[in-house]
Write a structure and sequence with these properties.
173 residues, alpha+beta, Cyclic Phosphodiesterase, Chain: A, four-stranded antiparallel β-sheet, 2H_phosphoesterase_YjcG-like
Length: 173
């Protein structure tokens, strides 16, 4: 059976609540997946691939220690697409995790875009909406730091929502 998978970090409940206060207005995916930092964008896999994939992910998780990340401002991917997001400042561990998850031996292929760690708060907005929302939100003072000690392999259900298949703790053998 073919499945759609993705690999993400879920931030703290406090940060999820903050992101959701905007997402429920500006992100049509609000009900489908909690706020997250994408480490590997959605990719297709066979159910038979899961066993080897999860053991590869365990090895990657053990290699990396828990780390902090910092959110610093509201940004947009416009004109590439109308996504408004909280910018995660560049971070060695995040970059290394992303690179490990895109090794040739791991299913899912190469990323479509360069890695820009972020937390989406708005997407699929018309150009007019995007400009309005972005102009009001970019003035917002964003300064938030927290620690991450795990990442999650998600799979997509038939209704389009995402659920956790397995969780991988960083630095834990």
């Amino acid at each position: 059976m073919n499945m759609k998978l993705g690999i993400v970090i879920f931030p703290s409940k406090k940060l999820q609540d903050f992101a959701n206060s905007y997402r429920k207005r500006y992100d049509p995916h609000y009900a489908l997946v909690p706020p997250h930092i994408t480490l590997k964008s959605p990719f297709d896999a066979e159910e038979g691939d899961l066993k080897s994939l999860t053991s590869q992910l365990e090895e990657i998780a053990i290699k990396h220690q828990p780390f902090s990340f910092h959110l610093s401002k509201v940004k947009t991917f416009h004109p590439l697409n109308n996504v408004i997001y909280l910018k995660v400042d560049p971070n060695e561990t995040l970059t290394a995790l992303n690179e490990d998850l895109h090794e040739d031996s791991i299913i899912g292929g190469k990323p479509e875009y360069g890695f820009v760690p972020h937390l989406t708060i708005g997407q699929k907005l018309s150009n007019l909406e995007h400009d309005d929302v972005y102009n009001s939100l970019q003035m917002m003072d964003v300064d938030h730091e927290e620690t991450v000690d795990r990442f999650h392999l998600l799979y997509q259900l038939e209704n389009g929502s995402w659920t956790v298949y397995e969780t991988f703790l960083l630095g834990k053998g």
